[in-house]
Each structure stands twice: as C-alpha cells, then as structure tokens.
Amino acid sequence: MLDQPIVMLDFETTGLTPVQGDRITEVAALRIVGGQVVERYVSLVNCGVRIPSFITGLTGITQSMVDHAPPAEQVVPELLDFIGSDPLSAHNASFDEKFLRAEAARLDLTPRHAALVCSLKLSRRVFPQLGSYKLGQLSGSLGIKFLGTAHRAEADAEVAAQLLIHIGQHLRSRYGIGQVDTELLVSVNKLAAAKVPQFLKKRGQPV
C-alpha cells in the first residue's frame, strides 16, 4: 500500500537515448491510489520517425501502427496533464524521465511531477538477495503475474505498478512502517544498499 498517489510510467522507444534522435512510440501512465491502479493513460505515438526492425522484433510495434497513431503534439501534452504534479515512478526511471523531458522540451513544455521514484533501484535495495532485477524475472521471483505482452508499455507499466505496491506492502509488514510515502521511497533510492535495512528499521516499529 502507498499513502499518496503516484504515477507509474513506461515508454516504448526507437532506441536508448533522445540525444541521438530516438523518440517514443508508445506510452502508458498508471495512477496508483491506495494500493490500486485507479486511472490510466495509454497511447501509441506517431513521432514521424522510422522504427528500426529490431525494435519491431522486440516490441511488436510496427511502422503502420505508429503511422496511424495520434501525433506526439497531441499525446505529450495529454500525458503531462495526466501526470500533473503527482510523483512519478518507472522501472529504470532515469530512462523514462529523460524521454519525457526531451519530448516535452520539443513542445516548449515542462513536466511538473513532484518527485521521481525508481522501482528498479528500490527492488535492488529492498530485495538484495534476488538474482535479476529485469522486470519480467523480478516479477516472477516475487510472485507477481505478468499480464499482457512484455515490452509493450501498458503491460510493463502494469507489472511495475504491482511491483511498487508489493514493495509498499513489504515495508509495512517487514519493518512496521506506518506511512509509505514518496519521501520514504526517494530516501531509500538514494541510500547505498548496505545502509537500507538499518534505515528502514529506524523508520519502522517492531513487528
């Protein structure tokens, strides 16, 4: 359970970095309130660029799909309005945030999210014993069902949202932490893994 709204974001893209001209092809943003996904924004995106064949092979997103999708000039403002000033989360959050900021900057817009929480970093710190922190393997290790198709934005965002909820529940049950909020999650993100257990014990109550 999480004690304030947070938006889980996932982009599919044409490559690894907007600095080299890569663009978004699909977005999913899921708002989590009270430990449940209560609202979502999902769309393919036409950025006017060619999709490399290896990206189509990975995601299943074809050139025709994006050619007939809403343009970035429509999707990005709608996405920013959906996120608003709520905290933002993503699995490997720096990747998704750099694309969000790059796409917004193209339209002279600025994201307003209050904070950024990385579910990948959280997982490494809260569950240090696991062998892999890739979303598919991580969800399997924690018993979280991966519904839909991997490397599609909504399916990835959905399982990442369930992962974040799972982490919140774990912090409550394992450490007796009464309030799992963005400030706590950001603090854990920033700590070295070895310091996390002691930090959480101090924040919680004996269980």
What is the compact description of this entry?
The chain is built from 9 helices and 5 strands. The protein is an alpha/beta fold and 207 residues long.
Task: Report what the structure shows.
- The chain has helices at residues 53-59, 63-67, 72-83, 93-106, 119-126, 135-141, 153-175, 182-190, 196-203; strands spanning 6-13, 24-33, 36-44, 88-90, 116-118.
- Helix 5 (119-126) runs parallel beside helix 7.
- The protein is globular and about 55 Å long.
- It has a five-stranded mixed β-sheet with strand order 3-2-1-4-5, sandwiched between helices.
- It has 207 residues and is α/β, with parallel strands linked by helices.
- It has a single domain (6-203), classed as 2-Layer Sandwich (Nucleotidyltransferase, domain 5).
- It contains nine helices and five strands.
